[in-house]
Task: inverse folding
C-alpha cells in the first residue's frame, strides 16, 4: 500500500453489499448459525464443569441430551443442506420418521437396563 492511499482502491459497489446481505438472510444461513450454536451447547455440556462427585455420578442425562442435540442437528442438515425442505411431503415424513426411530432406538438401548 502506498502512503496516504486507501486500503481498497475504489469503493465497494452497493450490489456486492446487497448480495452479501441477501446471503445472510437466507434460511440456510440461519440453519448454519443454529448448527454452530448447537455445537457450542454440545461442547459445553460435554465439559466436566468441576462438579462434585454426587452431582456427576450419573452422566446418562447429559449423554442423552447430547444424543438429542446430535439428532436435531441431523434433522437440520437433512432439511436445509440436502434440500428435503422443498421436497414432497412423503419424503419429509420418511426423513422425520427415520430421525425419530433411530434416535429413539439409540436412547432406548442406552437407557435399557443391562443384565
Result:
Amino acid at each position: 500500500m502506498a502512503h496516504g492511499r486507501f486500503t481498497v482502491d475504489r469503493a465497494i459497489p452497493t450490489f456486492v453489499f446487497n448480495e452479501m446481505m441477501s446471503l445472510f438472510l437466507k434460511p440456510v444461513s440461519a440453519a448454519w448459525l443454529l448448527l454452530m450454536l448447537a455445537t457450542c451447547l454440545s461442547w459445553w455440556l460435554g465439559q466436566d464443569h468441576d462438579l462434585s462427585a454426587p452431582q456427576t455420578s450419573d452422566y446418562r442425562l447429559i449423554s442423552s441430551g447430547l444424543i438429542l442435540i446430535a439428532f436435531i442437528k441431523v434433522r437440520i442438515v437433512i432439511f436445509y443442506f440436502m434440500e428435503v425442505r422443498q421436497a414432497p411431503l412423503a419424503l419429509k415424513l420418511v426423513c422425520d420418521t427415520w430421525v425419530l426411530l433411530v434416535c429413539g432406538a439409540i436412547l432406548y438401548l442406552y437407557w435399557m437396563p443391562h443384565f
About this structure: The chain has a mean pLDDT of 84.
